Amino acid sequence: MKYTPFHYKTIQEVENKEKELSVHFPLTENTADLFTPIKLFGRSVPSRLGVAPMEGNDSEESGAPSEHTVQRYLAYARGGAGVIWYEATTVVPEGRSGKHQLLLNKETMPAFKEMNERIKAAGKEANGFAPLLVLQANHSGRYSKPHGFPEPLIAYHNPYYEKNNPIADDRIVSDEYLDRLPEKFGAATKLAKEAGFDAIDIKSCHGYLFAEVASAYTRKGPHGGSFENRFRLLIDSIKAAKKYEDDQFYITCRLGIYDGFPYPYGWGSDQENRLELTEPLKLAKILKEDLGIELLNITMGNPYVDSHVTRPFDQGKYEAPEHPFVGVARMYEGTKAIKDALPDLLLMASAPSYVRQFSPNLAAGAVAGKYADFVNFGRESFADPNFPNEIRKTGTLSRRKVCITCGKCGDLIRAGFKVGCVVHNPEFKPYYAEYLKQLKNK
User: 11-402: what fold?
Assistant: First the structure.
């Protein structure tokens, strides 16, 4: 579908386009609500702005954070974010997305601890408070590349993922393998606590293993078919993590509530691929009321297959089937549905970057309109790690610094390079030039 790239100069122009498309997402002129303190994890947080999990692909081969990793997170801390949600960090070696993805184990834990101490000190020195740090514990599933080449571990065959790259049957993980994972995530939780994180996220989104099990309607056995079977892995892993929770350390989840594929190959959708939130609402209620989860970060889609759902864009690897405003509106519609059903559950919304300089207005609108309590910024944090302080000081973002949703950061990680903003950070331009060279020589 052809559409005019983002060109709007005023909020009114954005709202006019919303009306034309018959969609809605919240916008407000006043961004002061983003700096209204709120209690989270037992402490007062002065900013509703968070840094979303964005892989930098810059760890040591051991999985320990490199100095490059540390400097990236120090910039986020100095930038004034209230919450820094660390990028996907593997807790089992075979679930690593690449040789330079972070890996938490007994050997790498001290490096994480040292990094966290530096990050909290930097935030306090720069802004008068230390950001809350959340470790995202992940298993890459079908996107596993622990040795630098694909070694997928899948829950079932999904034709939307595999239409061009079929995967052998022997890469389907066994029930016994899935049964062992909660213990692994529990052990990682203990290490995350020792490393000085404030919380751990048992990740279930974006097509990785836990999210894929969520849509395993066609799988036989104890991890497929029924709701109870498909969420056994997530719930048991959260229960294993909960053993280490106390008044200084908490358990959370980044939860994908819509995969973007029609039932029975996508979760949170019906057979026409429309948003269907019966099961996501049921799960959110279990997480809040039965397991005592205080905060969820809501997201959607799969950045590898339907990135227009996860990260609405102007430029991408394919022509999006919908206007980007439709994707933004869906993200906030789904988030608000969870909030309306469970008003005492704290929510962090996602994907504000597409609306560029109006992303602070979207984030503030989400807070003021009770769509969410926090908003995580992903691509924008690569473009300008100082975005929270810029919003706090000016109420807006400079058009010269915002993410332009070009997708180049995504190209870098898929090609195995260190990841950052190619447009605004000269350090990453040579990596992108090399990526283009490799693409041309294929």
Answer: TIM Barrel (3.20.20)
